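C-alpha cells for chain A. Residues wanted.
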C-alpha cells in the first residue's frame, strides 16, 4: 500500500509504539488527506468511524472522490466508539 492514514490522529500513537513513524499518517482533516494523496494509487484508512472527530471530518466520504472502496474490515465492539474499521481504497484510473 502506498499510503496509510489513521483517523482520528490519536489512534496512531499505538502504531508509533511499533516503530511505524513515517509509514503511518495521523489525520483529522480532509485538507491533510488531500495534501497526502497526490501520487498514490492505493490508500488504507484505519479509523474508529463513530468517534466524534471521525464523524465530523468524514475522511471516508472524501476518499470516494479519490477512488473505489476495495476492501473493508471491521472489528465490532460492545461500544460503538470502540469499533475499528480498516478500508482499502484504490484510485480510479483517469
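Reply:
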Amino acid at each position: 500500500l502506498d499510503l496509510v492514514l489513521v483517523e482520528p490522529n490519536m489512534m496512531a500513537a499505538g502504531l508509533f509504539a511499533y516503530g511505524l513513524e513515517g509509514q503511518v499518517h495521523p489525520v483529522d482533516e480532509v485538507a491533510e488527506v488531500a495534501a497526502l494523496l497526490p501520487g498514490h494509487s492505493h490508500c488504507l484508512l484505519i479509523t474508529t468511524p463513530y468517534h466524534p472527530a471521525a464523524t465530523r471530518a468524514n475522511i471516508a466520504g472524501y476518499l470516494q472522490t479519490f477512488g473505489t472502496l476495495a476492501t473493508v474490515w471491521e472489528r465490532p465492539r460492545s461500544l460503538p466508539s470502540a469499533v475499528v474499521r480498516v478500508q482499502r481504497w484504490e484510485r480510479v484510473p483517469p
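Helices lie at 12-16, 30-36, 52-57, 59-63. The chain has a mean pLDDT of 88.
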